[in-house]
């Protein structure tokens, strides 16, 4: 996308967002929506006999074990947890008529002895495939609490498959991954909770980040009658498009590579790590900061007004151009051209956009940014595209005969990209159909019954565009007469990469805010986020040296941004207002 076109698009986004924000703050004839009653607590009746007591359709409970209160270690972090019953099982065991393999929807539920009356569906990331520990994230990087600790009954599942993406050959496994596992697990989980506590959950919540955020927005559209509060982080709700854009990025970076790989199956192929180095990404981040930092009223290393930055920062003129060799203090003309195309969004040979543009943001300096562009794009995305999102899928023999890098280099947005929308006699739903909400701005079922939706997204997300999420929210506003903020709010997290990390205040609790909105009518006007400096449970090594270890900032409902009040400690959220 040419720089001028990118600017015009974001100027329109800025103006329309401001107008929509005005109508969302009280204009446009608001109609009061219901406030749901608070959940009431209950006590676990029995754990030991639960597996035999609960008679659930198409479900096998393999164990029910009482876990004493104490530290529970998840991804290397130990957190104190309440006493709870760990239930493991599976649903819908079957043998595929397509690949002859056995499939089931594996799950675990953790049911606290002292229950707060709420259920939380933990939607997991990536391509699922593993039943991860059911604790329920509240949002952001290394949050200080989780749903289980708060007293929720929490479910986690593998979405109906395991192992490498060859399972995408099975049509039902695709549908389970896309949305049908949620449809099967939801009534089962509620029935199991009723068997455990003597009553069904008073309130049901759904949350996840990345693919989990996609699951969340799909649930908002498909299962709005089943969930009272939905929390969607970095939502990959256009995941098939984003994954194909990742393959296109490989081709862009390959054109810049200054060396080839010397060993392994990819020997002789472009070494993507030489296209843009870590120092060059950091240079880009510094230049964005220098140009845009003060747009929110203070120079503090955070670009809160990211949309204004898109019309202020110019990649061509605001980053030094190399006149000699590359030494990390400049970018070549070719690098600027390629990065300009990447920020502008993937396009086919006709110039037609196939995915959204990305924000210029200081978080491009984060290691997560380069990892998604230069590594995950050749390790994760090729298999997902080849087997899950395109119809018909690849064969295992054909895919394993090449490598992820080689698959990405040969992928065509002209001839291969259309396959994400294709169907045939065996694959009757396209990858686009089963992965995305059926109508992403039609959330009337959720809205009219008083349920609520919170969405958050890092503005430096390298794989799922925060600008894409902003465009979705503006469309949601338009579809609801400018009053979508009555039931759905979107919060951008400046500097944050994919779900966490980057130069950002990326530790926050959206779940408590969601519960207060659903059950108390307290719409979130700001969410305080904290930097993960020294003393945090997981330290964010990418925090700038000048920041306080516990810097706080308000996250603001779109299109508002955090602006400095003119006085006060720049390390404190109290010195900033959402405007």
Strand content: 15-25%
Radius of gyration: 24 Å
Specify the helix fraction band: 25-40%
How many DSSP H or I helices? 18
Low-confidence stretches: 1-29
Distance between the termini: 30 Å
Oligomeric state of the chains in view: single chain
Sequence of strands across the biggest β-sheet: 2-5-6-9-8-10-11-12-13
Shape designation: globular
How would you summarize what this structure contains?
The protein is an alpha/beta fold and 579 residues long. It is 33% helix and 16% strand.
Structural description of this entry:
By secondary structure, this protein is of the alpha/beta class. Among the domains are: 52-201, no CATH class; 241-433, no CATH class. It is 33% helix and 16% strand. The strands form five sheets. Strands 2-5-6-9-8-10-11-12-13 form a nine-stranded mixed beta sheet, sandwiched between helices. It has a two-stranded antiparallel sheet with strand order 1-7. The chain has a two-stranded antiparallel sheet with strand order 3-4. Strand 12 (452-458), helix 17 and strand 13 form a beta-alpha-beta unit. Helix 1 packs antiparallel against helix 8 (306-312), helix 1 packs across helix 17 (466-479) and helix 6 (239-254) packs across helix 11. It is globular. 51% of the residues are buried.
């Amino acid at each position: 996308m040419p720089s001028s076109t990118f600017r015009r698009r974001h100027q329109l986004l800025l103006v329309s967002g401001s107008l929509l924000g005005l109508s969302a703050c009280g204009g446009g004839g608001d109609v009061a929506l219901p406030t749901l009653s608070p959940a009431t607590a209950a006590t676990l009746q029995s754990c030991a006999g639960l597996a035999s007591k609960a008679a659930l359709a198409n479900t096998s409970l393999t164990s029910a074990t009482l876990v004493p209160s104490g530290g529970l270690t998840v991804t290397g972090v130990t957190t104190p947890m309440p006493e709870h019953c760990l239930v493991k099982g599976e649903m819908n065991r079957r043998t595929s008529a397509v690949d002859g393999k056995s499939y089931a929807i594996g799950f675990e539920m953790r049911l606290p002895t002292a229950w707060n009356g709420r259920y939380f569906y933990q939607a997991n990331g990536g391509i699922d495939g593993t039943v991860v520990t059911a604790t329920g994230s509240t949002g952001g990087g290394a949050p200080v609490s989780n749903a289980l600790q708060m007293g929720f009954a929490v479910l986690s599942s593998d979405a109906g498959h395991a192992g490498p993406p060859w399972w995408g050959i099975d049509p039902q496994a695709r549908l389970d991954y896309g949305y049908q596992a949620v449809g099967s697990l939801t009534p089962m989980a509620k029935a199991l909770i009723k068997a455990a506590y003597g009553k069904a959950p008073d309130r049901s919540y759904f949350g996840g980040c990345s693919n989990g955020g996609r699951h969340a927005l799909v649930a908002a559209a498909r299962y709005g009658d089943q969930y009272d509060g939905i929390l969607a982080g970095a939502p990959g709700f256009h995941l098939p498009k984003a994954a194909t854009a990742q393959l296109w990025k490989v081709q862009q970076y390959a054109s810049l590579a200054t060396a080839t790989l010397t060993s392994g199956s990819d020997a002789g192929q472009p070494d993507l790590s030489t296209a843009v180095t870590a120092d060059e990404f950091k240079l880009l981040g510094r230049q964005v900061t220098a140009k845009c930092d003060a747009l929110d009223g203070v120079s503090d290393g955070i670009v809160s007004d990211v949309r204004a930055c898109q019309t202020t920062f110019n990649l061509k003129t605001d980053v030094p151009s190399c006149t000699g060799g590359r030494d990390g203090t400049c970018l070549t003309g070719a690098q600027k051209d390629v990065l300009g195309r990447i920020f502008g969004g993937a396009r086919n040979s006709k110039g037609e956009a196939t995915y959204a543009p990305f924000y210029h943001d200081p978080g491009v300096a984060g290691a997560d940014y380069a990892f998604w562009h230069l590594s995950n794009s050749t390790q994760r995305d090729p298999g997902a595209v080849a087997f899950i999102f395109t119809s018909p899928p690849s064969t295992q023999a054909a895919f394993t005969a090449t490598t992820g890098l080689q698959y990405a280099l040969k992928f065509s947005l002209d001839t291969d990209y259309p396959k994400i929308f294709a169907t045939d006699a065996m694959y009757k739903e396209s990858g686009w159909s089963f992965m995305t909400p059926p109508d992403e701005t039609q959330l009337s079922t959720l809205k009219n019954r008083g349920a609520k939706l919170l969405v958050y997204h890092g503005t430096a997300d390298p794989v799922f565009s925060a600008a894409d999420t902003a465009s979705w929210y503006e469309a949601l506003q338009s579809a609801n007469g400018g009053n979508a903020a009555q039931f759905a709010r979107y919060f951008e997290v400046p500097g944050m990469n994919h779900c966490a990390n980057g130069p950002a205040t990326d530790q926050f609790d959206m779940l408590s805010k969601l519960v207060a909105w659903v059950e108390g009518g307290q719409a979130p006007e700001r969410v305080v986020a904290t930097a993960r400096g020294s003393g945090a449970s997981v330290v964010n090594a990418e925090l700038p040296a000048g920041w306080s270890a516990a810097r706080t900032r308000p996250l603001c409902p779109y299109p508002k941004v955090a602006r400095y009040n003119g006085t006060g400690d720049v390390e404190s959220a109290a010195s900033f207002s959402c405007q």
